[in-house]
């Protein structure tokens, strides 16, 4: 869970109508929409970790040839990078709350 500052604009982890980004202007209280967003983000990161592990296993065992393999390896690297950034930001937010 994250601390919220009143008036903070938060990008939500789902898309709205026509695939457009959804934002929440918080009241600082960590209301129900924030809690659902926190839970959704945790699920998304967990699924990303599982997918990353599964992709690594598949590539090691029964790797497809040529362009498909190249694409799968790059997608795996990109997902690993995105997860690292998300976890890093979460850790930095945790440190900021302690200060």
Describe this structure as you would to a colleague.
- This protein has about 100 residues and is α+β, with helices and mostly antiparallel strands.
- The chain has one domain.
- About 65% of the residues lie in helices and about 10% in strands.
- It has helices at about 30-60, 65-99; strands at about 10-15, 20-25.
- A two-stranded antiparallel sheet has the order 1-2.
- Helix 1 (about 30-60) packs antiparallel against helix 2.
- The model has no long low-confidence stretch (mean pLDDT about 75).
Oligomer: single chain
Tell me the count of domains. 1
Taking the alpha carbons of the first and last residues, their distance comes to 17 Å
The coarse silhouette is: elongated
The residue ranges in which pLDDT falls below 50 over 5 or more consecutive positions are none
Adjacency order of strands in the biggest sheet? 1-2
Rg computed from alpha carbons, rounded to a whole number of angstroms: 17 Å
Query: Could you give the order of the helices and strands?
Result: EEHH
Task: Describe the secondary structure blueprint for this structure.
Elements: E1 9-15, E2 21-25, H1 32-61, H2 66-98
Antiparallel strand pairs: 1-2
Helix pairs in contact: 1-2
Give a brief rundown of this model.
The chain is of the alpha+beta class. The protein contains 2 helices and 2 strands; from the N terminus they run E-E-H-H. The chain has one domain.
């Amino acid at each position: 869970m994250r601390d919220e500052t009143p008036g903070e604009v938060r990008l939500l982890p789902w898309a709205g109508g026509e695939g457009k980004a959804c934002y929440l202007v918080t009241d600082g209280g960590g209301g129900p929409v924030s809690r659902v967003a926190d839970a959704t983000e945790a699920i998304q990161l967990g699924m990303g970790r599982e997918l990353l592990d599964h992709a690594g296993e598949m590539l090691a065992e029964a790797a497809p040839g040529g362009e498909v393999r190249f694409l799968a390896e790059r997608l795996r690297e990109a997902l690993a990078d995105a997860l690292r950034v998300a976890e890093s930001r979460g850790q930095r937010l945790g440190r900021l709350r302690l200060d």
